UniProtKB/TrEMBL annotation:
Record protein name field: NAD-dependent succinate-semialdehyde dehydrogenase
Source organism of the structure: Pigmentiphaga soli
PANTHER family assigned to the protein according to its UniProt record, in alphabetical order: SUCCINATE-SEMIALDEHYDE DEHYDROGENASE, MITOCHONDRIAL
Keyword annotations from UniProtKB, A to Z: Oxidoreductase
Superkingdom, taxonomy of origin: Bacteria
Aldehyde dehydrogenase domain: residues covered: 14-470
Record-linked Gene3D superfamilies: Aldehyde Dehydrogenase, Chain A, domain 1 (3.40.605.10), Aldehyde Dehydrogenase, Chain A, domain 2 (3.40.309.10)
Record's keyword annotation contains Methyltransferase: no
InterPro entries found in the cross-reference section: Ald_DH/histidinol_DH (IPR016161), Ald_DH_C (IPR016163), Ald_DH_CS_CYS (IPR016160), Ald_DH_N (IPR016162), Aldehyde_DH_dom (IPR015590), Aldehyde_DH_Superfamily (IPR050740)
Keyword Metal-binding annotated: no
Length: 474
């Protein structure tokens, strides 16, 4: 049975004439069909978000927080059912997809509390009888553009801070994986978020983003996705003077030093590398290993690759599902072929698995030359390219060599090295003997071409707030 997904505009679920299929990446079969938003639907969504904003911004922060907390509780309750929808459209394993929903619930809890901490301040006056205040106010209706790799988590990172701040939202989830975000929005409605405060559209991404960024109602845009699309949206936002938060690609370097616990490093890195088949912006992506532990590292990673069970994410035996789209399958194959042609050693995998579905083997490449394309561009796949280094300075230069800076990881037993590299690495987040760089209470965001602004932490509300100065004389 193919599910029919409608648009949500001003509290009404709407069907349009046009439809687009949603494909299961494990089977190639259609899973769902989504309504395609037309210009008049987008105008209606913008008008609904603007009208609802006048009411939503006046709902107390306490009450807004209560609704968000209720949504978090509902997410935890229904995590497995929503997780199954994610698996059917994204491909990741059911265990991972269920965890994604539970983990996203943390963000609603976090922002429910942060809503109550949107503090202003009082500035000492120059004259008696004068009160000078700084107020923080919601910026207005926002447009959230979320991707397909973590459909519920990334939609949450748009919805939770916006609603907590008192902003309304038009969410455009990725057309590849819309069902999880749609279920999430239904939970928000069930938790009491009023009509028009949250709207859902999908269809043609370029049409939607160009019309809504230009619309007079939208004040804020938040996008998670690729660098080229981010650049395009930033230009549109600049043209229309809209505030924008961008969470774009990374190509996370990993530095493994001679004094590291290699078994611990490989166990942690492999878990994070093969999650969502490597289609994660913060996943470890370029591996620089010091000469003394290179052989041990490569052998342990080869074993970790061999332990992966690649299959349909709904099968409980599977530890890694397919890539989400055929586009990714071709991109990943091309990266590996190019690296091998440039002289990299293929130590494991390196091929598509089966003829049906977008399955690709966990792939380990040794002594990868710097000119290989995958050392320059984000691979977004289950590829582990390993390069040797000798000196600290060489490793830092390799890590900082790209114009990207989302996350970076290092493994060392030396406190001095840990402290030094935490300052030397050009990156928004750094994990040292740890992969935990993405949690609700911490700021998540990139530098250089990896983006601007933050999602999560105290910083997560900033993008949704205006600052107003009030000078009041008696
Ligand atoms: P892509 O550049 O074709 O598309 C990325 C996403 O942007 C898609 O969801 C698409 O629907 C959307 N998009 C495209 N044009 C748009 C427009 N004009 N307006 C609004 N949205 C638009 O890339 P892809 O093949 O889907 O993904 C591969 C790359 O995307 C990866 O290499 C990675 O860098 C990036 N990506 C990053 C994240 C992240 O979490 N930062 C998530 C998904 C994809």
């Amino acid at each position: 049975m193919v599910r029919k997904l409608k648009l949500l505009i001003d509290g009404q679920w709407l069907d349009t004439q046009n439809a687009r299929p949603v494909i299961n990446p494990a089977t190639g079969e259609p899973e769902a069909e989504l309504s395609v938003a037309r210009s008049e639907d987008l105008a209606a969504a913008a008008a609904a978000a603007a009208a609802a904003f006048e009411k939503w911004k006046r709902v107390s922060a306490l009450e807004r927080g209560n609704m968000l907390r209720k949504c978090a509780a509902l997410m935890r309750e229904r995590a497995a059912a929503i997780g199954e929808l994610i698996t059917r459209e994204n491909g990741k394993t059911l265990a991972e997809a269920t965890l994604e929903v539970q983990w996203a619930a943390d963000y609603f809890d976090w922002f429910a509390e942060e809503a109550r901490r949107v503090y202003g301040r009082v500035i000492p006056a120059r004259m008696p009888g004068v009160r000078q205040m700084v107020l923080r106010e919601p910026i207005g209706p926002s447009l959230g553009l979320s991707p397909w790799n973590w459909p519920v988590m990334t939609a949450t990172r748009k919805l939770a801070p916006a609603l907590a701040a008192g902003c309304t939202v038009i969410l455009k989830p990725a057309e590849e994986t819309p069902s999880g975000p749609v279920e999430l929005v239904k939970l928000l409605v069930e938790a009491g978020v009023p009509a028009g405060a949250v709207n859902v559209v999908y269809g043609d991404p370029a049409h939607i983003s160009s019309e809504l960024i230009a619309s007079k109602e939208i004040r804020k845009v938040s996008f998670t996705g690729s660098v080229p699309v981010g650049r395009h949206l930033a230009a549109l936002a600049g043209q229309h003077l809209k505030r924008i938060t961008l969470e774009l690609g990374g190509h996370a370097p990993v530095l493994v030093f001679d004094d590291a616990d290699v078994a611990d490093a490989v166990a942690k890195l492999a878990t994070f590398k093969f999650r969502t088949s490597g289609q994660v912006c913060s996943c470890p992506s370029r591996f620089f290993v010091q000469e003394g532990v290179y052989d041990e590292f490569v052998e342990r990673f080869r074993q970790a690759c061999a332990r992966q069970v690649v299959g349909n994410g709904l099968d409980t035996q599977s530890t890694m599902g397919p890539l989400t789209s055929e586009r990714r399958l071709h991109a990943v194959s091309a990266f590996v072929d190019n690296a091998v042609a440039q002289g990299a050693q293929l130590l494991h995998g390196g091929k598509r698995l089966g003829a049906r579905g977008n399955f690709y083997a966990p792939t380990l490449l040794g002594d990868v030359p710097p000119q290989a394309q995958l050392m320059q561009e984000e691979t977004f796949g289950p590829i582990v390219p390993v390069v040797r280094f000798q000196r600290y300075e060489e490793a830092i230069a390799l890590a900082n060599g790209l114009n990207l800076g989302l996350s970076a990881y290092a493994f060392t037993a030396s406190l001095a090295t840990a402290q030094r590299l935490s300052e030397d690495i050009q990156s928004g987040m750094v994990g040292i003997n740890s992969m935990a760089v993405s949690i609700a209470e911490a700021p998540f965001g990139g530098i250089k071409d990896s983006g601007q602004g933050h999602e999560g932490g105290q910083e997560g509300l900033e993008g949704y707030l205006n600052t107003k100065f009030v000078s009041q004389a008696g």
